[in-house]
Amino acid sequence: MSVDTVSMTGWGRTAPTTALRFRPRTYEEAAIAVTGRGPRGVVARGLGRAHGDAAQNAGGSVIDMSALDRVHAIDPAAGTVVCDAGVSLHRLMEELLPLGRFVPVTPSTRFVTVGGAIGADVHGRNHPSAGSFTRHVRSLDLLTADGTVRTVLPGTDLFDATAGGLGLTGVILSATLALRPVDTSLMSVETERAVDLDAALAGLAATDDRLPYAAARIDLMARGKATGRAVLTRGEHAPLDALPARARQAPLEFRPARLPAAPAYVPEGLLGRTSAALLAELRFRGARAARARRLQRLSAFLHPLDALPGWNRLYGRGGFVQYRFAVGGGQEEALHRVVRRLSLRRCPAFHAVLQRFGEGGSGWLSFPVPGWTLSFGLPAGLPGLARLLDRLDDEVAAAGGRVCLAEDSRMRPETLAAMYPRLADFRALRAELDPDGAFRSDLSRRLAL
């Protein structure tokens, strides 16, 4: 096991902190890192795609799980896989697609680990039908503060605290996942314009099981009658008979596109209001009013930003702040108020995405609630950003909504309890399971988790 001292940030590249990093290659080495922790505690870290500070631990220890990446068993007939927590969803897709299987839930990047997907209880574009990631976890092995390993099953308090628990109940070592069958590695995709936010909401609400993956790219620079205009995309896994004859020769081939990496240095202000408005205009005008189904690579549809390695560097040295919130059905007016506020400020959000949520999961700190979620990133140096996001927190909390903790880097602790009603249960279980506070992170200290 290698050990070094490094400065770390989340994917947003804000608020760097320094920690002792352990890189175990066995479960036994991971246990040594946990039991040998210092007074500042320890937290597990995957591929660093959490936007905020959930996988940082200033002055403490961080366990880099990326070397624990074994796929132990795949049962195509039963539709299950057993793998280490450090296995990435990208790796699973490489292994599973040739067998006609696919992960049932994937976020907007496939470069997250299985442990990270469980700890954040990630969701995808198909949430109304598939739920979030931990709905498909059949069991997991959890390394707890005393160095023992527990097999944790759905339906237990420990599972519900770990699902979306941001690594604060222990270190996930491995998991058994249920998979979904697919016939091809392509998606059948429909695209249409929505002239305003109401049209975008109606389009997403009309999505059914025929096209379970759906999202709307919102133009947060548009004003007036065009406020909230969007480009909607809906898709499903393409059946074999939808492929042209040549593509049927290798229907499950997985070849994600990859562009040159983003440059190491990007001038500050490059992603400002002018460029954001131009790109939003081009995106909206470039989309047809309605486009019939077409075939698209799975990676291009589900993970478009993965094609550009290091895209987070495009925001410059200051990085960016990601903000994702959810409000319940019947709270659409709160969503309108947030979008209007952002539009009036002409916030340069390059990748603002609106989605519909189905039923929430059992995780006590899981983010999804039935209704709507909007996600966007803004340059960290934007004047007045902190005050703006604090006001959005208040707006969301007043509507009974919540901010996504896995993407948060700045929320106030007093706002948290209003958003997560099972917070007291989470804290009580942690106090019982880990009375010495072995598992800590910058986020847990900031929000008093």
Describe it:
There is one protein chain. The protein is of the alpha+beta class. Helices cover 25% and strands 25% of the residues. It has 13 helices and 19 strands. The protein has helices at residues 27-35, 89-96, 114-119, 127-130, 157-162, 197-205, 273-286, 298-302, 332-344, 385-398, 413-419, 423-433, 442-446; strands at 2-8, 17-23, 42-45, 61-64, 71-75, 80-84, 101-102, 137-143, 149-152, 171-178, 180-181, 186-194, 213-218, 230-237, 290-297, 320-328, 352-357, 371-379, 402-403. Strands 15-12-14-13-17-18-16-19 form an 8-stranded antiparallel sheet. A 5-stranded antiparallel sheet has the order 5-6-10-8-9. The chain has a 4-stranded mixed sheet with strand order 1-2-4-3, covered by helices on one side. A hairpin with an 8-residue loop joins strand 1 (2-8) and strand 2 (17-23). The chain is globular. The model has no long low-confidence stretch (mean pLDDT 93).
